[in-house]
Amino acid sequence: MSQLECQKEDMASTIEQLEKKWTNDKSNLGEILKSTSQTLSTQVTACEERAARAEAESRIERDWRVSLQEKEIRLKEKIATLQSCVKELNEEKQKSDKLKLDLEKVRNQWSEAQTTLEELGIQLSVSKLKISEFQDNERRQQLSMSGSSQSLQTLPETVSSPGIWAPDSIATHCTACTREFNLTRRKHHCRSCGEIFCKACSEHTLPLLNAQGQPGRPVRVCDACYASTGK
Question: At residue 151, does pLDDT exceed 50?
Fold first, then answer.
């Protein structure tokens, strides 16, 4: 009996120790589970935060790509517009160059025509002067032959023969006052001597002999030619 009681006591002691161990293990397991749960919760929170950041970064990247694509489209449109403008400018430049060449040709033609007109004007003045001198000499001979000296005296002192006109291209200053010609100070020929004067130095008028040797209508003359008549 005593041996059975000893075995019973040993079994009770063993059971008690096992219960204590189980209790301790249960307490430790709860702490371990709690710690593991907290760790897993922290890791899940960190993963969620990382996922949120990644999503935000991905959204920012998508917006940035969309913005870049829109900018690229606008830049392509601007490039196309600028290329079109450059093409139009090149066409306008070609037209302008052609117009410049045409203008230069017209200027050359005008210059040649002006030179021709000046030469014709000089030749015409010389011809008129020769005709006037010839008619004047012929009239004087007729008057001298008829003995009518009174006819010559009846001619007014203001009448004279037209002179040879000086070309416009050689005159840059007034022959009398030497002031320079410009847009407001224009050139005027004296119909008597043919020189070029400004308006202030050629305001008088005198009748000149026409092709028939008769005094014509009053025309512009310079101050010197007007003063030479004694007026």
Answer: no
Judge contact between 161 and 125, C-beta under 8 A. Answer: no
DSSP-derived secondary structure for 17-67: HHHHHHHHHHHHHHHHHHHHHHHHHHHHHHHHHHHHHHHHHHHHHHHHHHH
Contact status, residue 169 vs residue 118, Cβ threshold 8 Å: yes
Residues 67-105: tens digit of each pLDDT? 999 999 999 999 999 999 999 999 999 999 999 999 988
Q: 188: buried, middle or exposed (CB in 10 Å: 19+, 13-18, 0-12)? A: buried
Neighbouring C-beta atoms of residue 101, cutoff 10 Å: 10
Interatomic CA distance for residues 216 and 154, integer angstroms: 15
Position 149 scores a pLDDT of 43
pLDDT digits (tens, 9 = 90+) for 189-204: 898 888 999 999 999 9
